[in-house]
Amino acid sequence: MREAWIIDAVRSPRGRGKPGVGSLSNLHPQRCMAQVLNGLKDKTGIDPSLIEDVVLGCGTGSGDHAHDIARMSVLDAGWPISVTGVTLHRFCGSGQQAVNFAATGVMSGQQEAVIGGGVEFMSRYSPLHANGFHANNEHLMRLHPQVPQGISADLIATLEGFSREDVDRYAVESQTRAMKSIEDGRFRNALIPIYNDDGTLALDRDEHPRPGTTLENLKDLQPSFAKMAGFHAEGFDRPFNEMVQQVYPQAGKLNHVHHAGNSSGVVDGASAVLVVSPEFAKAHGLKPRAKIRQIATAGTEPLIMLTAPAPAAQRCLQKAGMTKADIDLWEINEAFAAVVLKFMKDMDVDHSTVNVDGGAIALGHPIGATGGMLIGTAVDQLERLDKQTALIAMCTGGGMGTATIIERV
Ligand SMILES: CC(C)(COP(=O)(O)OP(=O)(O)OC[C@H]1O[C@@H](n2cnc3c(N)ncnc32)[C@H](O)[C@@H]1OP(=O)(O)O)[C@@H](O)C(=O)NCCC(=O)NCCS
User: Fold this and answer.
1) Which residue, of 151, 175, 178, 239, has the fewest CB within 10 Å?
2) Do strands 194-195 and 4-11 pair parallel, antiparallel, or not at all (unpaired)?
């Protein structure tokens, strides 16, 4: 099979995902995505007419994100009408899956130059959302009860014995690392400033991090998902915590440890990664920064939902003929603190090599956009730290994990 080369990866800043509060929230998500695509074009110098497809992840699919936001963003960017776009949904892993599919197209020899990435404006979620993961399908809900992800994260903490202090300590480290990375300008290489429709600057830096976060000031935050656990899913006679007890009777009473300070931030953002074949790169004078060595997915039990990053990483390593000792750096999406704590425990990897620039607890997790952002961050880290390999993994709704191994060229 051919290699798939990453020429470059860019992203918007992550704006706070609250209407009127977040600096990107006045923009349509398509407008932001279009600016990120043009940012990638300008940075790499690629002629957009050579791009065969733009594959974007988006975890919403309704309202402002409806239908095929990838094609609409290509048109919004002013790119030739010959450039197609396709939008896919793998919940939080959508953007990573989009880059992985871009790589698959190139590796298989079917495509030469594809953009993978994603977009999500959590400030503009539509009230037309279907009811939960089961999409109003009560039959599925009975077959596989599923609960909101924050409850799943609390379930992981309960089953694994992670205390409130464990998750808060992790969150403080995420904030500390992210602030250091921002102060050192480590994200500057990938950041595309985003402008409002009137030409004024909307945002040129991540606005979710909270400098000065300490264990002490997280102590007073109330658990976010305790009350929710007592709610009934629409059309159901049992509250979420009873569903949890049905599938995980061994958990006993849930220990609700997650709150606003140790859960991923709700933000707006967009990302784009240019993936091409070696032949294409050489023909067009493009210099690769990394190659995609292996991709994988894994499925686990859907109620606990967030436990598949380790199985996906294991499968990815195995298919690549590698072991964890071959990986220099890990980017594991900080959906919730317990997700990364469990990953490190399951894989027996040390925090010193995981999420070295902080993660979504500090920076935010713009669902469909995050995968492309993490892959770009990993490329920057490999160069900065002069390392060779990184493994990126994410948990997703429905109990799935996505994984990608990249290697510097
Ligand atoms: C946990 C969650 C419900 C909290 O939402 P929220 O209450 O709107 O969170 P906010 O960021 O507005 O924070 C609320 C308050 O907590 C406090 N707070 C948050 N982070 C803090 C920190 N690091 N230090 C101190 N206080 C903090 C602040 O008082 C803040 O209020 P302020 O913004 O007015 O200062 C939300 O972040 C969430 O759902 N995250 C997960 C998203 C998700 O599920 N993604 C998919 C993953 S699978």
Assistant:
1) 239
2) unpaired
Cβ–ligand 1 distance for 308 under 6 Å, the answer no
- What is the H or E stretch that residue 371 is in? helix 367-384
Token pair 């606990």: residue: 304
Q: For a pocket test of ligand 1, which of 149, 155, 221 has the largest count of ligand atoms closer than 8 A to its C-beta?
A: 221
Tens of pLDDT, residues 277-303? 999 999 999 999 999 999 999 999 999
Q: Does ligand 1 lie within 6 Å of residue 358's CB atom?
A: no
Token representation of residue 78:
């002013």
Q: What is residue 168's predicted lDDT score, i.e. its pLDDT? A: 99
How far from the centroid of its chain's Cα atoms is residue 260's Cα? 18
Q: What distance in Å separates the CA atoms of residue 178 and residue 174, rounded to the nearest whole number?
A: 6
Q: Which residues pair with 334 in a beta bridge?
A: none
Element (H, E) at 403: strand 400-408
CB crowding 377-409: b at 16 or more within 10 Å, else e: bbbbbbeeeebebbbbbbbbbbbbbbbbbbbbe
Which residue among 90, 121, 224 has the greatest number of ligand 1 atoms within 8 angstroms of its CB, and so is best to mutate?
224
Task: Give 31-66 pLDDT, tens digit per residue.
Answer: 999 999 999 999 999 999 999 999 999 998 888 998
R_g over Cα of the chain: 20
Would strands 329-332 and 201-203 be described as parallel, antiparallel, or unpaired? unpaired
Q: Whole-angstrom Cα distance, residue 335 to residue 153? A: 9
C-alpha span between 375 and 406 (Å, rounded)? 8
Strands (E), 238-388: 267-276, 290-299, 329-332
d(CA 275, CA 51) in angstroms, rounded, equals 10
The identity of residue 293, as a single letter, is R
Is the minimum distance from the CB of 221 to ligand 1 under 6 angstroms?
yes
Both tokens of residue 386? 């002069």
Cβ atoms 83, 49 nearer than 8 A: yes
Q: Are 155 and 302 in contact (CB under 8 A)?
A: no
Helix (H, G, I), strand (E, B) or coil at 359: coil
Q: Residue 245 contacts by C-beta under 8 Å, 6 or more apart in sequence?
A: 251
82/33 Cα distance (integer angstroms) = 18
Catalytic hit among 32, 58, 65, 92? 92
**Confidence (pTM):** 0.98
Asked if residues 55 and 70 have their Cβ atoms less than 8 Å apart, the reply is: yes
Q: Is 58 a catalytic residue?
A: no
